Amino acid sequence: MSVRHALLALLSEGPKYGLQLRQEFEARTGEVWPLNVGQVYTTLQRLERDGLVASDDPEGEGPQKGFRITAAGGRELDQWLRTPPETASPPREELVIKVLVALGMPGVDVHELIQVHRRYLVELMQQYTHLKAEAPEHEVGLALVVDAEVFRLEAVVRWLDAADARLARLPAGGRAARAAAAPRAGRRLGVRR
Amino acid sequence: MTAMLELRQVSKVYGSGPTEVQALREVDLAVDGGELVAVMGPSGSGKSTLLTIAGSLEAPSSGEVLVGGSPLSGMTPNQRASLRRRSIGYVFQDFNLLAGLTAAENVALPLELDGIGQRTARARGLAALEELGLADQAGRYPDELSGGERQRIAIARAVVGDRRLLLADEPTGALDSVNGEGVLRLLRAACKRGVAGVVVTHDAQLASWADRVVFLRDGRVVDQTTRPPGPESLLTPGPNR
Question: What is the value of pTM for the model shown?
Answer without folding.
Answer: 0.80
